[in-house]
Amino acid sequence: MYNIFFLIFYLSLYKLPKDLNDCILMFFLVGLNIKYTSFFANFLWRAGCMNYLWGFNICFVFLIPYVKCWNEILINDKKDLKNNKNIILIILFGLYAIPSGMFSEYGGMCVSLLFLLLTIIIKFYKKIKIPFWYIYGIICFEVGYYFLMFSSGLKNRKKYMKTIKDYITIKEFLNLSLIEKFYLINEKILSRGCSNFLGFYLFLFSIFYLNEKKNKIIKSIYIKSIYIILLSFAIFIVINLKKKYNLKKYNSIVYIIIIYLSIDISFQNYNNLIYLFGILFYIISILLSFQIRFYAKRSGFISFNILNYLSLNILNKLINKSKIFHIISIYILISSLKFIIPNIFHIYNDSNEIDKIIFNNKKNGTYNIIIPRKLINNYNGLLDWATLTEDSKKFPNYSYNNYYNIKSIKVS
Q1: How far out from the chain centre does Cα 296 lie?
Q2: pLDDT at 290 (0 to 100)
Q3: What is the mean pLDDT of the chain?
Q4: What angle in degrees, to the nearest 10, is found between the helix axes of 105-120 and 132-149?
Q5: pLDDT tens digit sequence for 42-89
Q6: Contact in structure between 69 and 81 (CB atoms under 8 Å)
Q7: Residue 270 to residues 74, 104, 195, 227, 314: CA-CA distances in angstroms?
Q8: How confident is the model over 378-391, as pLDDT tens digits?
Q9: Which residue from 154, 183, 293, 343 lies 20 to 30 Å from 315 (Cα-Cα)?
Q10: Where are the domains of the chain?
């Protein structure tokens, strides 16, 4: 788990924490992931998470040389890419790229698209010769990805998802009417992605935007009023993050505002195009999962890291402007720990209590198990796996039947 944060930090800022500001940024990153992403889903699986997090660790290490190249060319405006002529090193890099491509079905799709878009920009817009190791690594990554996508396990899962109507094929999507396609895509934009994280990013980006445009804002009362309204909306979203409102209905508005502001500051400084590209890629990464009706929270981890990247870069530019950003970062970390620590103990204790109830009932010869509702309500919605329901015939109840070797289980 800790490796993930250091890798995200390095991939975002191309350095490891070495001074006070970097430590504050690391606090900020950890706090963001606990407070605004599906932390329990990503890091606290009941079944264990070694397979999932190890995959991301492997892939993020693989991406380091590519991110370095993209930073040198797109941010620092370097005119060429260094070619590595060490054959053994290149072969080893390719072999490492294969398991990297197998880290996640959805994540692999997002990384593949990122490779495609940035390679096109480097080759045809920047007109830079691409070295052999760069292409060879991508090819090996795609080989690993297709091994994963055509594995028997994934085929079996797709068949099962079709039986429970949780999966729509490309053919079925193309057969939909234009208005049905629009509603389906709009549903994904509204219901997926992290509304809380997106709302906080709007707040942070609005501050960054005002800082970039401060000289021009002062000149026009009309424009200044618009910016105050936009920032007020961002503050409203952040204030309501703790309340039980359905913030997903604001997602489309938030996207439009961020895209508009990103376009505006990109005209002022072309280096700011990274924020426009980032938010557009975030939206695309969400839409790539349109075939799946039920969206596991952990599937958004790759999308969360796009916002991680953008947020870290913004705070890195603002952190020297005022000490208030130190306070904000430390507050986010402390408040997130205050939320997560008690919940971890609640989940652990309640899970043990459920196990104890099942085993005690079996010991007494009862194989139709009833679980008190209070043990489910304490962590319902926090975790990635589906929680027990009142209907013993629904998922995941029947999965418990098979696992614990019982006849039925339900909540009452």
Answers
A1: 11
A2: 66
A3: 78
A4: 150
A5: 666 544 445 567 788 899 999 999 998 888 888 777 877 777 778 899
A6: yes
A7: 10, 33, 28, 21, 15
A8: 554 555 555 777 87
A9: 343
A10: 1-167, 170-291, 340-411
